[in-house]
Amino acid sequence: MPPRRLVLALLALPSAARSQPEPTLPEPPGLLPWPAEPRLAFQPGAEALAAATAPLLPGALAQVEAYHGFGFARPVLVRAFAEQAAFELHSGVRAGPLGVTIQHAVHLAPALAGAQRRALPRLLVHELAHLLLFQRLPALALASLPPWFLEGVAVDCSGGDGGVRTTPAQAMAALRQGRHFQPQPAVLPFMQHQGASAFGLTTGEFYRQAALFCAWLRQGNPAGWQALLAQLAGGAGLAEAFARALGTTLAAAFAAWRG
Prior knowledge:
Number of domains: 1
CATH topology: Neutral Protease, domain 2
Radius of gyration: 18 Å
Order of helices and strands: EEEEHHEHEEHHHHHHHH
Shape: globular
CATH class: Mainly Alpha
CATH architecture: Orthogonal Bundle
Number of helices: 11
Strand order of the largest sheet: 2-1-6-7-5-4-3
Strand content: 5-15%
Number of strands: 7
Structural class: alpha/beta
Largest sheet: 7 strands, mixed
Oligomer: single chain
């Protein structure tokens, strides 16, 4: 059987994501390579988006690799779309997302050439962070990672932004009100992944709380954080990698972060 395809979509207003098996998506026809940047392809009509993306790509790749402590396993492919219908068809999503990461490519929506242009730099980093884990983690290990970790890592890697409009203060206010995610260490592939709605959070609150927790872990033990990511890339489960790399349990760390 072909490998299961996973999709992570970052929505702009409001910001949201999903991680779930997807059927095989059709490859977009007629894309052209961007001059001097073979990692970037564009749909005719998306020249402005491709031109804005090309100079950002080397720095975004370097930022993602430095954050994780390891590089991409295969060539990177970023696709810029001119037509919303084509973007949705080839990304497996409906109206809303600005960026989508499928297992072998990052897809950029047409709106990033216009009203959402300011979101492009950090959104590109966010999606490339997903792509790196897609490339480096074994399929079963990737499928078992809970959404809070995947999105927390991507938002933290992008500098705490990546399209999330909820501020740290707003996310922490929700936490003080008793509304917060539960950092489960794994989700079995046949179970429904728990996202924002499962915890009574908006998607922005969910993303931001997860990112703040990841940032707290990283800042408190930078070497341990990169060791954790390396353990995951080697196929370890999150609970196992957490104990080995950070010397504590996920539950204990979360309780300490919450105060």
